[in-house]
Design goal:
The protein is mostly helical. It has one domain: Growth Hormone, Chain: A. The longest helix is centred in the first third of the chain and has 35 residues. The two termini are 24 Å apart. The C terminus is likely disordered.
């Protein structure tokens, strides 16, 4: 196999910088989607909201994520990654500041929807750009680390929200929603001048620009032979939006969309309304429920750490299959024993959070590995859209369900959704560990290297 300048490169400070810049989007996503759960009680009181309106505020950003991923994923594949890498953060900063001055629920719902569109764009743009720069040896680990920044952002939201509730008291929710503008502005400045993806440039026939970008990053290593090798990997085939719904790529799209959806529906409901759910289990004190939600958020983050090792030692497939199986157990316990002591309730939520680390890190690995450069951002956008529209429905229905059928049945429904995720992953999850990006994303992927066995990969499928 010929060498590739990008796939075989050493992991350099440039790659670390690209990770940090991309991770900023995930930090903001976790922060923005979680901060609402922290202050929803204050918003409900001050704006006189019904349970339905509270659900819409939680779901509106997710609906925006659906449209943002769908529209900007395709747009990113057509006009490039770098151009859009900064602009949508301006929208996030402006909408966050605007949220401080709303006077009725409708205004907040609209602003949260706009924020969601911008966040959906970042999923497609950032993950495609980062994956196309990473060396093969570090791609899985670094892409998996992106979701950790989501959980860092979510944890930060709980800590900031808790601090503002104690310091400001009434009206703290306005400052909490507006606080997201600060990291947004920081990353607007930091992302200026980010280089375009050379893989995308080559796929569009812009070889001279690709050579210039590679020279800027790799210096003298960017030889004509290196560019020619990249051209061989990234030859254009005229793939368009419809390609993700045809042939082998449709099977991959179905797998990515379904596993992402079936993991995200319970996870987002727990994150968006964590304090409310804990309150339904008897932790009625608002400060206690926020602290409990922050603890659960930390376990979501901690669960990613062993998963990052397993994807390279055991493989992608066994990690996602076993994770879904284990995630079912604590949700089922909560559903069957809604009157359990607070310690048991927290332990179950923490166990669910820990086991979710595997599917969480694979949200960014699988979509970028299973599709070629011409439709990579499109595929990420479609996966984001499918997962977020389901999460929006679940988030909207959660507060209504808590009032109408109670927390026990809600937990059993979540357990059932997760069990369906196990079935999907067992039937469809592929193994892409150790493959070059062009090989993993091709219509006839090369076999995984023999030097990296992957135990527990029962009947692997190549979607």
């Amino acid at each position: 196999m010929s060498t590739s300048l990008i796939d075989d490169a050493r992991f350099s400070p440039f790659h670390k910088k690209m990770f940090v810049l991309t991770a900023g989007g995930q930090f903001l996503d976790g922060y923005l989607l979680s901060i609402v759960g922290v202050v929803v009680l204050g918003i409900t009181h001050d704006l006189g909201m019904s349970a339905s309106a509270a659900g819409l505020i939680g779901a509106s950003a997710l609906i925006g994520l659906f449209l943002g991923g769908l529209i900007f994923g395709r747009l990113t594949d057509r006009i490039g990654r770098q151009l859009l890498f900064t602009l949508h953060f301006v929208v996030i900063a402006a909408a966050s500041v605007g949220s401080m001055f709303v006077t009725d629920p409708v205004q907040l719902i609209v602003l949260r929807f706009v924020i969601g569109v911008a966040l959906g764009a970042d999923y497609a743009i950032g993950s495609a750009l980062l994956s196309e720069w990473l060396p093969t040896a570090q791609r899985g680990r670094v892409m998996g680390m992106l979701i950790m920044m989501w959980f860092v952002g979510a944890t930060a939201a709980y800590l900031v929200g808790y601090g503002l509730i104690n310091l400001v008291g009434s009206g703290a929710w306005r400052w909490a929603l507006g606080s997201a503008a600060i990291p947004a502005v920081v990353f607007i400045i930091a992302r200026i001048g980010t280089p375009e993806s050379p893989r995308w440039l080559v796929s569009r026939g812009r070889l001279e620009q690709a050579r210039a970008v590679l020279t800027r990053v790799y210096g003298a290593e960017a030889t004509p032979e290196a560019v020619e090798s990249l051209r061989a990997d990234e030859s254009a085939h005229g793939l368009g939006f419809a390609e993700v719904f045809r042939g082998i790529y449709f099977k991959r799209t179905a797998f990515v969309g379904l596993f992402w959806l079936l993991q995200i529906v319970p996870l987002f409901a727990i994150y968006t309304f964590g304090p409310t759910i804990l309150g339904a289990f008897g932790m009625a004190d608002s400060k206690t429920s926020v602290i409990g939600s922050a603890l659960i958020s930390v376990l979501f983050l901690v669960g990613c750490l062993p998963a990052l090792r397993i994807i390279e030692t055991r493989g992608r497939r066994p990690l996602i299959v076993w994770s879904f199986a284990l995630m079912v157990v604590p949700l089922a316990i909560l559903g069957l024993a809604p009157g359990a002591p607070a310690a048991v309730v927290l332990a179950c939520f923490c166990a669910y959070a820990f086991f979710s680390g595997g599917p969480s890190i694979l949200e960014f690995i699988y979509p970028t590995e299973l599709f070629p450069t011409e439709i990579r951002a499109t595929a990420v956008g479609v996966g984001t859209a499918v997962s977020r529209i389901g999460a929006a429905i679940g988030t909207y229905l959660l507060p209504i369900g808590l009032q109408s059928i109670g927390v026990g049945p809600i937990m059993l429904i979540m357990a059932g959704v997760t069990a369906l995720g196990f079935v999907v992953c067992f039937a469809l999850a592929p193994e892409t560990r150790g493959r070059r990006l062009a090989d993993a994303s091709g219509s006839t992927p090369a076999p995984a290297p023999a030097s990296h066995p992957a135990p527990f990969t029962s009947h692997p499928t190549q979607p």
